[in-house]
Amino acid sequence: MLLAQAVLVGQQLVAQVTATPSSSETPPPLKEIGHVHTSRLCSVLRHSLFPAVAGLRIDDDMIGKGQTMMQKTADDAALGATSAQITGGAGAGSEMDNFQLGVLSSGLARNLGKIEALLNDAGSFQTDPTDDDGRMLSAAKARLEAVAARQRVSLNVLSATAEINSANDLRAQRDIIPYEHDMSGAQTPAFTPITLPDALAAARKATGESELDVAPAMVPIAEACR
């Protein structure tokens, strides 16, 4: 998605920074523009910033798949409504949808945790930068953190859908008693699917807007390491 700008605009610049030399080659020195600290700038770009960008792009793909899965969850629940009323459960198709949404949400959460760890590395980013390099790194960090925060909203929507649906399914299947034999007069509640497509669409839109700010912060750093 929009994060690709941060890679495509500076693709050739990044290749010089992130390329891994073969065992027979001597690693090229990082460029220094009159300051020793420039090597730190390029090291953080290679070891923290670009891995974070790559992770956020993977997240975008996962969230896109999650949106498709959420729609399938709603469709399968609607198709299985009749049997769900009889059994009190979601039906096999909807149960599998909830399971797959849960797996995707767990994977997305793990990936976001890794990205946040990269951006929280005190050795890479200064709390109060005192030089231009530090300020550039802090600006890039802040913009990537903004994207990660927006992606976490999408994660919350996806995981909530999976968890609420699974809980509703268990509730509907609990102590199933045919209505005509239920002396209390209470009927087992049918499975009620929960999907939040509008909430996810809004979260994805907000993420895309925050991604627009990434390339302007990343490209100057890549330029300095060219």
Characteristic terms for this protein:
226 residues, mainly alpha, A middle domain of Talin 1, 8 helices, elongated
Describe this structure in words.
With 226 residues, the protein is mainly α. It has a single domain, classed as A middle domain of Talin 1 (Up-down Bundle), CATH 1.20.1420. The chain contains eight helices and no strands. The chain has helices spanning 4-8, 11-18, 38-79, 81-87, 92-119, 132-173, 197-211, 214-224.
Radius of gyration: 24 Å
Give the helices and strands as they follow along the chain. Answer: HHHHHHHH
**End-to-end CA span:** 25 Å
Query: Could you tell me the number of beta strands?
Result: 0
User: How can the largest sheet be summarized?
Assistant: none
Measured by DSSP, the beta-strand proportion falls in: under 5%
Number of helical elements: 8
Total domain units: 1
Q: What is the third-level CATH name, the topology?
A: A middle domain of Talin 1
Residues in helices, as a percent range:
55-70%
**Which runs of at least 5 residues are low in confidence (pLDDT < 50)?**
9-27, 30-37
Shape estimate: elongated
CATH class: Mainly Alpha
Return the average pLDDT rounded to an integer: 79
Annotated CATH architecture = Up-down Bundle
Classification by helices and strands: mainly alpha
List the helices and strands and how they pair.
Elements: H1 4-8, H2 11-18, H3 38-79, H4 81-87, H5 92-119, H6 132-173, H7 197-211, H8 214-224
Task: Summarize it.
By secondary structure, the chain is mainly alpha-helical. The protein has a single domain, classed as A middle domain of Talin 1, CATH 1.20.1420. The protein has 8 helices and no strands.
